[in-house]
Amino acid sequence: MTMKTSLAGLTVLLLLALSVSAGVSLGSAPVPLSTVWSILVNRLMPGMLDVVWSAGRESIVWDVRFPRVILGGLVGAGLAVTGAVLQSVTRNPLADPHLLGVSSGGALGAIIALLHTGLVFGLVTVPLFSFAGALLATLAVAGVSRLTGQGADRLVLSGVAVAFVLTALANLMIFLGDPRAVHTVIFWMLGGLGLAQWSHLSYPAIVLGVCLSWLVLRAREINALAMGDETALTLGIPVPRFRMMLFVVTALLTGVMVAFSGAIGFIGLMVPHFVRLIVGSDNIRVIPLSAAFGAIALIWADVVARIVMAPEDMPIGVVTGLVGGIAFIAILRRRSF
Length: 337
Known about the structure:
ABC transporter involved in vitamin B12 uptake, BtuC; 14 helices; 0% strand
């Protein structure tokens, strides 16, 4: 590992630590940073420090904001990694889980689980249904794209079409569901981190850790696939099977993240482009850095969502949609298709 790489890694970790600190500290009831980290230390090592803060402030920091910020980091990392991989695999700079309908599929699965089937498999029901919906959406986009013709523009248009269909189905499921439970499902349509709990964080954390590790280990094959199927085949990569494996992994990542945060758009589109401007297109660097900057981006988007309309929380999907739409236009101006 070179000195430059080590310095870059330390810089990213510092930015992430600062973002977590700001995410826990800022809000409708600001908490000083010294208090935030004192509470954290006291929770991890009881009796280490004298308690000079109120029980209410400790509850805000430990029970509400820390799980929310950690969930935001996990979701942001997962969506950004998914976007980076999809852009490489499809060789389309506009590919991301939201534009390609994968997030819509995940939201549809979560809505079906919440309103119609119930938690038939316990706590894993919503992530499982969300993954199934995301995988179905991925396969549908691939199928529609193959039917309508190959090309970057066709893939994006296929994704938009599938997203419209899945969103319509999600709205139908809401219409047919119990009216008393419908208001809770709006969360999945607009995106948010307000339901974060310590007991639920293990699911997205494990899925992200496993999927991210596997993708980093296969980064060279992803690089080859990004250069074209012919190049990948000459290197001995079984292209159809490997591409399907990548689609399943990205659908799993998206589905699980959507299950806990709702459909949050444009993180997967914006972050990988920003990372490539810094480190180039080698996925050995792009994938892990996309995870780090995706976490940072979504933590700050949540901070904005909590502050702009305090004490009410703006849906985080509104913030990412506004910023992402502007970024989308900028990407269109920079590139020709």
